Amino acid sequence: MRIEIWADVVCPWCYIGKRRLEKALASFEHRDEVEVVYRSYELDPFAPEVGTETTVEVLGRKFGADEAGTRAMMARADEVAAGEGLVFSHADALHARTLTAHRLLHLASTEGRQQALLEAVLAAYFTRGESLGDHDVLRRAAAAAGLDAARVEQVLASNEFRDEVMADVAQARAYGSSGVPFFVIDGRLGISGAQPTELFEQALAQAWDTRVTA
């Protein structure tokens, strides 16, 4: 059984949803027969490649809130994250486009290290407040995930895997999704948002029981 997850690497609810799905999978008796694949999605494709404003500044402008109000809004998500064992500290991280990070995730997929890179990238941004527009940050994440350094440099210096990222975004829209996280189990069952772990447990059981086998 395959689970595809559309997510952006600067989306707090995507990280929270990731943890909740992982908890559901940990107790799923057929866990070893489940493949999890992450698909790309850009929440802000118009963001600068190299960040110049902080996340709190960008969100404040987007939602028409002052700094105090924006930090309070972010703190609510931080509290939910803490309940999943995550410590968020990204309000002052520079806001940048995530295309390059997604391209590296496609590279990592070809090397069987997508999960490791995704976790490293999420930790860099959410836990340490590092900008994903900084190639040195991405290099460190790639090294921590065990990616081939020469291939990482090739991707960073090119547009390699851009088409794959755009195809992922197009597929999400074809499914009717306008936001992330968005989960699709076996191409049949869709789940929007960082739902409670219990809902993921129910969805896994339902998908398994109704799967079509050869």
UniProtKB/TrEMBL annotation:
Lineage: superkingdom: Bacteria
InterPro entries in UniProt: DSBA-like_thioredoxin_dom (IPR001853)
Residue ranges occupied by any DSBA-like thioredoxin domain in the UniProt entry: 3-205
PANTHER family: GLUTATHIONE S-TRANSFERASE KAPPA (PTHR13887), THIOREDOXIN SUPERFAMILY PROTEIN (PTHR13887:SF41)
Name the UniProt record assigns to this protein: DsbA family oxidoreductase
Organism: Nocardioides daeguensis
